[in-house]
Design goal:
about 25 residues, mainly alpha, 1 helix
């Protein structure tokens, strides 16, 4: 198990989703 990697992947996905949503609303 590599929970750190899973957390990192999850946070990266969330951050990208937020970033793209922010771009879309600009």
């Amino acid at each position: 198990l590599a929970p750190d990697k899973n957390v990192k992947d999850f946070l990266e996905t969330v951050w990208k989703g937020f970033f793209y949503k922010k771009l879309a609303t600009m």
